[in-house]
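anyone seen this seq b4? input:
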Amino acid sequence: MQKKGQNNRLQLITDFPAQIHAGLQYAPPDEIEKVQTRLFLEHLDFTLSNSPFYQDSFKAAGITIHDIRTMADITAIPLTEKSDLENTEQFSCADPKEIVDICLTSGTSGAQATIIPQTASDLSRLAYNEQIAFGMAGITESDTLIVCAAIDRCFMAGLAYFMGATRLSAAVVRAGSGSAAQLWELARRTKATAMVGVPSLMYKIGSFALEQGYDPAASSITKLIAIGEPTRDASLSLLPISQKLEAMWNASVFSTYASSEMATTFCECQARAGGHLRPEMIVVEILDDQGFPVPQGELGEVVVTPLGITGMPLLRFRTGDLSYMIHKPCACGRTTPRLAPISGRKHQMLKFKGTTLFPNVILAALEGNEKFYGGYVEARCNEDGTDRVTLVAALKDHPENKSCTDAPRWMTEHLQAVLRVVPEIRIVPAQQVDSKVYQLNKTRKRITFFDLR
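predicted toks r here
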């Protein structure tokens, strides 16, 4: 087995020149499985040779690398929890001299940010990841992409977008997560043709333009790459906020799903029917509450094994996100399975009046209404152990500095129709919502759920 510091084999794999794996997206399923199995076993070999955490984990489980011979054997490997990553040194598989970038997760769920060390090989893999993802969405060397995400503060996303777009030879505007006014001005002056950012921020940019007498629909933007927030429901239909974005910008919204831990993007192709699995980069499992695979097409937790990472490789990492896999053929001609939109976070699942709810679904039900400004969800525990769910909402026509518990009839009726239940509702000024959902979050990703149970 390979020893720490001897990364020649994985260096070749994670240089990821596009010509090696690009055709795999269209290959027959048996060929895809053959390539993925080879890469997975190589990844496993490297990880077990160098990771103290997984060496201890395998020993505790009473298994060895010789017990894992096929993809089907992956279920014998213990799952990796988010809390396990607190001790980064136990996961590190590279000599300190090989680390060229230190990344931090956003930590928006309230947990401490995880440190993710990256090698030069990992950065090359990251660039390839976004090159293929952007290519799926139709971005080419003719595009100018404005990146409305932080490229500093050790975040991975902005760095990945920049490297991936430049690998496509597209022009990149490294705008960052600034104000709506600044971002609109940059998009307008650079004649950007594509934008990547959080949907709520892209909507604010368009709203600012309209307030200033500009028409974002008449701009050069034709593609909106949505990150960090849901854009579709479980049936793949566009959520109201996405419909408003498309109408506002006269542009197509492309959904994505990713995390810093997996360093891999699931991006929609131009058929826009789920995020394509990248078999050369990641293994995906959908598991039930007991950790067993769910029947094909059923909802479960997304568990990932990112392939080819050399700094901090992971095995069977539990994302906490709930989704399902789509295996029917895609109109784009790719043969890879697709990941459906994320239904919610497992730990955010609420039981309310006999119904299972997710905070993002509550908000998504209202975001298409012109009277709704924004809001967040709070969850508390009742004395009988059930969940008490409160929607704190702001309305565009509500008097400033005034709160009340009387929700307008249109709001309660719409929630009843969409959710079948109506949570407690508290109407507050828009400023209170903004100060709560954005707080000190410099990525402009909203925090819309507060678990007080």
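The longest strand covers residues 372-381. The first helix runs from residue 8 to 14. kinda curious what u guys think
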